[in-house]
Design the sequence.
């Protein structure tokens, strides 16, 4: 599941305003969020993740920690970050393909909430959301919280505590919180191994981009025909909505 955008979009548009539910008008037919609402949901997600970066810089100033000081576009760290994205993506595929009830419920929740809100966003817009999420969340959790807790309690305890906080921040469902905690441990370990934020930011951003693209574009497109009543004509894609952005 995408870490960050799921919460950011749910927020101002489930971490900023309640997530959009399909609207049930007087006639009883379920309708999707409007094009304007979907646009604002994306902007809310980007804005929420950007605020996390501002919060990281503010907390870093208070604690005398420079969260972005170790964020350097060093080729080896970027390359290894790309390689390190493979295990989480395998995990994404396992979760979305699994019939195990906790995984199935999580996938259904993401399909129900995130898909309708982001289905007509362009690949560039998804990339922006993923990049801001990776930068903002890694600056806050691995750039400020983890070193602060490690200085107080030791590297191992700091890693675990930061990962638990990361999981709680993504507690869309209990299963998602557990998976996000595991992801936090993974990203925190990369921070320790490479001594910088470059690898974890790369993993976080690339993973979120691929996860968002798969969940809200590819899976949504694959589900669309089956969601229509028998004999009903296919609806226009959301991107063709003539309404205001």
Sequence:
């Amino acid at each position: 599941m995408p870490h960050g955008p799921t919460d950011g979009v749910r927020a101002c548009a489930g971490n900023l305003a309640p997530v959009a539910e399909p609207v049930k008008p007087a006639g009883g037919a379920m309708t999707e969020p409007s094009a304007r609402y979907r646009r604002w949901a994306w902007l809310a997600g980007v804005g929420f993740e950007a605020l996390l970066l501002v919060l990281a810089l503010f907390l870093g100033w208070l604690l005398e920690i420079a969260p972005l000081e170790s964020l350097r576009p060093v080729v080896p760290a970027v390359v290894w970050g790309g390689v390190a994205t493979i295990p989480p993506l395998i995990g994404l595929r396992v979760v979305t393909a699994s019939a195990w009830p906790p995984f199935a419920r999580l996938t259904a929740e993401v399909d129900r909430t995130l898909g309708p809100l982001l289905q007509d966003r362009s690949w560039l817009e998804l990339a922006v959301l993923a990049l801001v999420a990776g930068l903002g969340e890694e600056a806050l959790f691995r750039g400020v919280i983890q070193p602060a807790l490690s200085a107080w309690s030791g590297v191992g305890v700091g890693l675990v505590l930061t990962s638990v906080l990361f999981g709680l921040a993504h507690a869309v469902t209990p299963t998602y919180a557990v998976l996000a905690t595991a992801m936090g441990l993974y990203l925190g370990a990369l921070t320790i191994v490479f001594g910088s934020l470059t690898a974890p930011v790369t993993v976080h951003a690339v993973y979120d981009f691929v996860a968002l693209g798969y969940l809200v574009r590819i899976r949504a497109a694959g589900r669309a025909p089956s969601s229509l009543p028998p004999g009903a004509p296919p609806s226009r894609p959301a991107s063709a909505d003539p309404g205001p952005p």
Q: What stands out?
A: Confidence is low (pLDDT under 50) at residues 11-30, 225-245.
